[in-house]
Amino acid sequence: MNLRIAPVLMLSVPAPAAAWSPLGEVLCAPRPAVVARLERDHRATLRATGLREGGTLIEVWAAEDGGWTLVQSYAGGTACIVAMGAAWEMPRPPA
C-alpha cells in the first residue's frame, strides 16, 4: 500500500464512540457492604445467579425502575460490581 494513502484511510475509519456509564471502573468491597448498598441505595433485589469457573458467583441485582447491576462474588467474601445498566426485564417463560 502506498504510505501516503494510509493516513487518509485511517481518517476515514470511524473511531468508536465513548460509551457513557455510571460505572467507570470495577468496584470491589466485602460482599455484605455491596449487598447493603444495592438494597438501600438502589432498592435492588437479587434476580439471577450463576456459577463461573474458579468458584465465582455471578449475580444480577435489579430494581423495579429497571436499573440493574452485575456483581461477581468470590469465595473469600469480596464482591465486585462489574457492570450497571437500565431497562432490565425478565421475559416470561413460554406457556
Strand content: 25-35%
Task: Describe the strand arrangement of the main beta sheet, using strand numbers.
Answer: 1-5-4-3-2
Structural class by sheet pairing and helices: alpha+beta
What's the gyration radius in Å?
A: 20 Å
Helix share, percent? 10-25%
Task: Tell me what you see in this structure.
The protein is an alpha+beta fold. The chain has a domain at about 30-85. Helix content is about 20%, strand content about 35%. A 5-stranded antiparallel sheet has the order 1-5-4-3-2, covered by helices on one side. It is globular. The model is unreliable at about 1-20 (pLDDT under 50).
Secondary structure blueprint with pairings:
Elements (H helix, E strand, L loop, with lengths): L5 H7 L14 E4 H12 L2 E7 L5 E6 L5 E6 L4 E8 L10
Antiparallel strand pairs: 1-5, 2-3, 3-4, 4-5
Features of this protein?
alpha+beta, 20% helix, disordered N terminus, 5-stranded antiparallel beta sheet, 95 residues, 5 strands, globular
Could you provide a short overview of the structure?
With 95 residues, the protein is of the alpha+beta class. It has helices at residues 6-12, 31-42, and strands at residues 27-30, 45-51, 57-62, 68-73, 78-85.
